[in-house]
Write a structure and sequence with these properties.
about 325 residues; alpha/beta; Arginase, Chain A; 8 strands; globular; binds zinc ion
Length: about 325
Amino acid sequence: MNSTIEVYAESALGDYGFGDNHPFGNDRLGAFKREFIARGLDQLVALPPSRLATSEELLRFHTQDYLKRAQSLSKIGFGYLDLGDTPARLGIFDAAARVVGTALEAAESLMSSDTRRCFLPIGGLHHGRRDSAGGFCVLNDCGVVIETLKQQYGLDRIAYVDIDAHHGDGVFYEFEDDPSLLVADIHEDGRFLYPGTGMSEETGRGRALGLKLNIPMLPESDEAAFLNEWPRVLEHVAQFSPEFIMLQAGADSVVGDPLTHLEFTPACHRHACRTLCDLADSLSSPLMIMGGGGYNLHNIAQTWCGIVEELLIDL
Ligand SMILES: [Zn+2]
């Protein structure tokens, strides 16, 4: 077992999902774990437990009003937490609070131990806003982690990279004018896919102008198109010399996803992971990778296990 790589895959994390008839079902973690165990990867990494986030931690990013509303709707188990994408499933608030708490546990481990790389398959809920759910995301683990790194650890150079098919609007707009967060987001062009944002002209505001990079890709963009754009992402991140690097590695950008139209391959995610590991090592920065979206279970298993294999190289 290698204590410098952590994979947070406790079964309770699989509670975050919206049931069998929803694209974001409850077997996404199971699909990953079956392949993870079949490849023997569970023997090579540390497997820490999950935990719930506290209200105080959630309030670092979310508003009190929204937390109250989401918590009470999730107890009733009826209706939506946004305009119709994110059902208020019974118990979904606690399941989301577990995703966030686990991400905080990973961040804490990366900041205070010899852990250098973490993977959180159920994580990267990048559409959650401070005061609303969005796109299957009840809370935003990325947002809470970023605020925690700033407020509790005093970091002022954090890099957030996102290769999920959807634009990470909940991270992008909630930190649009924040000079301590660099964003690099490759996604399907918003003219063709939810949430409809992330144009290349959007580069940040105020003191953060130029710090945010959006790379919208046309439907059917493939591995070659990804590899062609990726050096811009790496260069953008490297010139910031981040103290902490996060990657939202959504598997819904891989060809065959039922909700999107990109045609990347698991090799794209491996390449992103490999090159960010190298960059993180050269900067002595921790690297946190979240599984993000992905609605084709085969793709989830192949893509996320490929990421874990890359994390294990060159330790
Ligand atoms: Zn997505």
